[in-house]
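Fig. S4 source data, part A: sequence.
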Amino acid sequence: MTLTPAKKGKSFDPVPAGNHVARLYEIIHIGTIPTTWQGQEKMTDKIRLTFELCNEKKEFKEGEGEKPFSISREFTYSWGTKGNLRPFVEGFIGTKLHDDEAYNFNLEDLLGDVCLLNVVHTEKDGNTYSNIQGASPL
């Protein structure tokens, strides 16, 4: 899960916790970046999926009108069964993928698709963070 802290001196409203109708609107291939796992430094290929919450809106900047909340989650770009991406996508589409299907799956086919996102809150250093727990078909 990716934690995005608020900027010092600025207030922000976390995405409300709970289940939300959401649309996948952005897939970013971050690329291969250095990460630390179990105390070891390694290079990891990462992607970010970003969703807009269709029914949760707020006026973020005065005079611009209401806009939907958005929330992202980063994944290691791996289709292995032990990773987080494959189970997340299987939840999103509502079906298990066989290995050959998973390794040939085109994430871009999900762009614009609607799902039910489960958002949870975590507290850290006095801040509240919104995190995508999982997805399921609508």
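Fig. S4 source data, part B ends here. The beta strands are 18-37, 40-58, 67-76, 114-124, 127-137.
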